[in-house]
Write the structure tokens for this entry.
Amino acid sequence: MGTIIIGPGSMPLPVPVAAPVVQIKAKWSDEWQTRPELELVRVTAMAAGQDLGSCELRRRYGIVKQPCEATFATVGPADLAMWWVRIRLLIDGAAQTIWIGRLSGQAREVHGSDAEPSGYQCWVGYEPLHLLQRIHVGRSYWRQEDGNHYGLQELAWIPDMNGRDERKMIVGNRSQSKFPDDEGTYVYGGHQLWTHREAAEYVLARFVEWPELPDGPQWRLSGQADLLAKITDTVSFSTTQTAAEILHELIPNRLGLDYRITPFCDDTGEEVGFEVQVYVLTAEDWQFGGQTLLRNPNVVQLRASQAIDAENLTIVKTFEQRYDRIRILGKRIVVCCSLEGAVTNPQKPTLLPKWSAALEAAYRAGTGTPLDSGEEHDAARKTDRFRPVYQAYGAPPGWDLNASSAAPALDREGKLKTGEFSNWQNRVRRTLSWLPLREGYDYSKEPPADNNLADHEPDFLPPAVWIFDPDPEEGPGRYVLSDQAAIAVSVPHNDWGIFLNASPNHLLALNHWEGQQPEPADTETEPRYDHQKMVATIAFESDQRLVIEKVLPGAGPCGGVLEIEADDAEFWYLAPQTVLMLNPAGQLVRSGDQPRILRDDSPRLAMLMAGALARYWYSRGRSVITVKGLLQWSGLIGQILTVVEEAGATLDIQSPITAIEWVGGKNPSTTLRTGFA
């Protein structure tokens, strides 16, 4: 086939081998047995993102003359189910492994015979990826260090890696150290973020190598696995999934990554296990937003002009997966801001009553019979139809989002645009039941001061309402938190605001009760708080989301728009002048004149974009190259084919080699295939 150049040096084409060596063993710990009667029909080695590589073997039975035997003999069928198989080629007098896997099933070609049963046994085996596809994971290991337990415990559920529950609380973090200390792997049960590398090592060690296969091969990570240490994405799990499915999420194609599974040897040169060899799908470094996807350094250059033994050389350049615009979509931006009553903010009140004047008049009238007692009137005021009166508050119908300060705008790298605001609408509204503020933090400081215990995971605060108390037991009037006034807070599902639960409702009607028309009927409880002096701090999802974008100059719709969803990536924004707490004198403490970012996952999206650019920014190349003879090319999987020469011209491929196929028999051949996983 000419010359293959790998990196800066060159490697001459191996001499084609006429016959492969087939070896088998029942258990991984057994010695390999060479079996000349097993004929190689076809064997394929593949990248994990491409498909499952397989091996087809054939064996005659009946009255046959085996290889290396001088006479015919009666040979019965063999039972090789679940045996390990190794395919080797003799090159320069030394045996080199091209494939290891496990036999799975057989088919028989039965030949009619009056003397003995005869025919062919046809065996099919699969690469080690098949083992990972057969190991289901629905459990997890946790490190316990409390008063009741110490050590490693196996639990019957698996939390999302770095996952958050419905309260946005992290429930899937790893331990502070490896278990056992300084060896083994990290496990669940701590407060540290998992990296994808740490999680992959955990899966291989805890579920694949031990204890599921105590007599099986060792497993480890290799290749460009360090890139996985930069990724801390959330990985969601169902009740159970296979080890292969987990690795597919931890080594994601969407980030321009893939892996192959290849045997590794001990000091004696004997294969002792398999390594998950991570590699990048492109030969170029890709950068976005300060994140870099390093190139695959293993480059193969094929000189087609010297390929005298090539039976087929097919090259395809395609633009079908190329896009002019790529966008990575995170979640909608969470905005935290304050709404204020007409007295607290007289120029532009934003916390307004959400009940009608007619309903308020009916509430004030009580039973409708003025001579009834205050107790009877108050009982009538407790009916369900009066729930909104003095209790439901929200933003104005045409709210300008606090002069747009609660409408943050982000640039194409997901960074906050200073002094710029985004578009919004006023029709579809929903208030979140939590604030992007944690218990025990002092947000009056920047950065916030954490006053929690080191091993405590603080919850998120609920929406907060501060009410002015004009007549406290001691001292002058001051603001108090609503729960100190025995008033509970909930949120509406179809508005931006709050719903208070006071008893009675008109506890919040100070300055809006006596002297108002119609005059209220008697009551057992006089109003104490003025709802126009309230301030509520709420959170809601804005009409924009965390998005990063790369656009080719002159791009239009016909060039294609690719959007990739990252549904766990968040951006939390604290609007200027948001009320955070009270000082010791009962005065409102605000966040200041500048907006603050409480959470920003844009750096994580930048790594996603780097991977997407590697896959979708340029045209793709695919090639199929078939050469006479059996060649030791299994090590080329995961390397990048860069240039193919054609009559002095060059054709850029830059695609990873994803499959090698060997065909035995009278006309043996080796086929190399490239293309994105």
Summary: The chain has a mean pLDDT of 87.
